[in-house]
Amino acid sequence: MIRNYIKIAWRNIRKNKGFSLLNMSGLTIGITCFLLLATYIYHESSYERFFSHADRIAYFSLSYKAPNSPEMVSSSTTPTGLQQTLQSDFPEVEQASRLYPYIQGGLVDIGNQSLKENKLIYADKNVFEILDYDFIEGNKKHVLDEPNQIVLTETLAKKYFPNESAINKTLIIDKVNWKVSGVIADMPSNTQFRFSAILSNQGLARYKEASWNSANDITIGLLKTDQSFQSVQLKLDNLVKDKFSESIKQGYEFGFKVEKLSDIHLHSKTAGTGNILYIYILMALGIALIVLTCINFTNLILANAIERKKEIGVKKVLGAGRKTIFFQFLFECSLMILISLIISLVATWLLLPLFGHFMGVEMQINFWNKPILYIAILTFFIILSLLAGGWPAYSISSSKPISIFRSKLIEKQTGISLSKVLIVFQFCISIFFIICTLFAGQQMEFIQSKNTGLDRSDILVLDGRGWQDKERQLLKDKLSQLNSVKGVTASYDSPVNIQGGYTINEVEGQAPDFSIDVTAIPIEKDFVSVFNIKSIAGSSLSDTDILRASDTVAPENSFIINTLAATAMGWTPKDAIGKKINLNGRKGTVKQVVESFNFKSLHNEITPVVLFPEYGYFGNIFIKLHAGVPTQDALNQIKTIVKEIAPKNNYDYHFLNDDFNQLYLQDQQTTRAMQLFSLITISIACMGLFALSTYTVQQRIKEIGIRKIVGASVIKIVSLLSVDFLRLVVLALAISIPFGWFAMHKWLDNFAYHIELDWWIFILAGGSALLISFLTISYQTVRAAMVNPIDCLRDE
């Protein structure tokens, strides 16, 4: 019997090639999009879960607040002493380890050239007891026991030691010899720890004493059970009272927080690089897509049933029971779903690299050998068959033969009202996502065009690590002579994402216990002018200021502060000039007050910032290009000078706008996904509307014939048929606008600076939906309006 059902189903699919192709195309597109989104969501929610003890790995962070600061400052790094305390005084902690970025250059000497390696990191010797990466070579328990030992990733090992074992080989980094003690497999893409090598921190001066005065280490731990997080948090609260007791008495506030490492990516505002809100948005989009696909499939099956009314009627007259008709159509629907599902799986596998590139994420399907995948696919197929094929099969099998031969198939049972409800639902979802897409696009344009108070245009960024002061000054002097270069400067951090947390105290004119938290960054003297930051009061840094700050006996610093910092210390910009302050032990006077500029993403409000000249280390060199000079010519000129001064330098560069755009990677990813899949949702909704228009025209074909006989024009009939459909779209628009407004209002709350919810965008979304809907139904309505009345009434 089942074999017979399958043969009949296949025969009907082949017989109705056009209908079957249309229906399976919509189904394939919908399932493929759903699977791509599901893969991305799985990737984002699986960060760090590849570790064998992922549920027990803890991540520790710190928050602090100075007495006169308005709110707590969160830091993803912790004091050096925390690791030792966790290891010795917390019985719940099995292992604790520290990670510290290697920031002093990373120049690897190989042959006659030096290659820059930016992803180097120091770690304690027990780090691999917590992060159990797959070792290709070496014993993980002893690879970092001694100073100057290094563990390479597989890619880095092949880069420097091709076709041979890297173990016991020597890698020269910044003129220091490092012995390769291990090689680990390349890390998967779903991790926040992205490094190319781990270096032993044994022998580093900063780890000789357990310091609590600064926070620069990433601290992780392996708890004995996954139930210990709460008890560890309670002990951390008590630890704060012990280690910072004197500071707390002075009005400072501190707090440690422990979180699961696997939760950090999406749930931590301190250290996470993802956003759970965007995952929820994409989940909603994926569910909406598959629901729309099922609805569209159902509508097309119901519309096609009209053309097969005589087949169904004859079968019922000849004795076919309701059960037989039901299973015939269910098998036919299920077969189309199965074919579409198979094509979708292949399409997903083929499109995943392209989709990953589109989303800016390297995704991998590495679970093909897991039984759960095939159970999920089977479950998905059964549910989809019941949802998309079960109802049409039930409706068709319930029809009476007398209704069928009177051309009233499923008019009463399904009711055209059901199809209308489905269409309204489809367009509600489609218009909702159109609204969200338009607003998201507007916000992204706003971000790109907003004046952040800092000129990012035509700024070339060179890696400043490894440059000595004399080399950097020589580079600046030579570059300044080029007609393509407008200015050169340097700083510790990128000016669009300054991370340094500092404290100002000993403020002139304030009480002795006055203290505020600020963000601060060491800069080269021409920083303000190169970035065209507006000066409010005071004068720019001079060579004399640099010499005074560099004095090793009695240094005297000159500070540049923004207007918010001046206000926070109780001064007007003019009054602030010449005032004395102490920035983390650096004493000096305020030399200049500048306009407050955005030095982080627009998700964050502008806060007090201090710029100070400190030439010990600069991570970035910035070259301002003249706008009128061809970029490639300027790059070639700069490269020539760089190679002249530092022949081994491999000339790594990028533009500052790339750093700026990186701050909004998650926003851009989600916006791109919404733009793409909004087009697909409206396309699927239009397919459903096309099915409904076909269905309705077939139901009213005789009415159309009679109206033409009594003199109705083509325009009259087209408008008569179209108005009913457009009313459904207008109803969907009325329903979706409030939801779209609410969703976008909540989303824009994530940005400290954002667009307004302008009314014209809602009108644009509604007008687009109406236009697309009219074009969709016009084919059926115009064709029906132009048909010969004799053909319409032939059966009568």
TrEMBL record:
Stored InterPro entries: ABC3_permease_C (IPR003838), MacB_PCD (IPR025857), Macrolide_Exporter_MacB (IPR050250)
Q: Where is the ABC3 transporter permease C-terminal domain?
A: 285-400, 676-787
> Where found, per UniProt?
Cell membrane
Q: Where is the MacB-like periplasmic core domain?
A: 20-229, 429-640
**In this entry, which stretches build a coiled coil?**
none
A Pfam family: FtsX
Predominant location? membrane
Per the record, membrane topology reads: Multi-pass membrane protein
* Membrane-spanning segments: 21-42, 277-303, 324-352, 372-394, 415-440, 676-697, 717-739, 759-779
Q: What is this protein called?
A: FtsX-like permease family protein
Q: Which organism is it from?
A: Sphingobacterium kitahiroshimense
